[in-house]
Design a protein that fits this description.
By secondary structure, the protein is α/β, with parallel strands linked by helices. It is built from eight helices and five strands; from the N terminus they run E-H-H-E-E-H-E-H-E-H-H-H-H.
Amino acid sequence: MSIYVLDIETAPAQNIEIIELLAAESVAEKAAIKPPSNYKDEAKIAEYIAAKKLEIDADFENRYRKTALDGAYGQIVCLGVAVDDQEPEVFYRDDWRASEKEILTDAFEYLRQSFDPSCDRRPVFVGHNITGFDLRFIFQRCAVNSIAPPSMIPFNAKSWSESIADTMTMFAGFGNRISLVKLCRVLGIDSPKDGIDGSKVYDYLLDGKVNEVAEYCKRDIEATREAYRRLSFI
């Protein structure tokens, strides 16, 4: 039985139409600001409206960055996979804003070539929160980009399916959560978060450090694979 350890890194929406939609929502929120009825002083009213607009602007940045967790709006900038004991392969492009389609195509070709369809057992896909995030996000981006994924990927599998090994669920149980950092800490595995974590990925990308994001993706895969071995008592 082969295992495929999977991890993705994502960025907020890069589609200008989506960004404009989010911006329009903020404009509408600003237009709807109304001071409390007991405010009579024009200076206080102006101060109140200005403060609320600043809050909306800050919230826009927060909402925009959160699109990196939404497969309908965000996009994949790195897709990494390790087959059994092999070195992880991470698929990415320097032009990460406009290369999601190529990243998916390259990764899927690698998966197809690595799998023997004559095998009597499907591979097991391993990941940390793989059912709750990675697989669903990949499926959604395939739909958006009109790319047919390999049939070997168990997109609709449940956490308890034999074709899935979710290290978060394996340790914490169904419906519970544990971060990969904490799981590595309690299992005595080197943390993959060396100066970077998911919240910093977009900043690294903006700084032109997509190579470092790819290395981070690789470390996540290696740590997840080791956690899977420990939790499987291999």
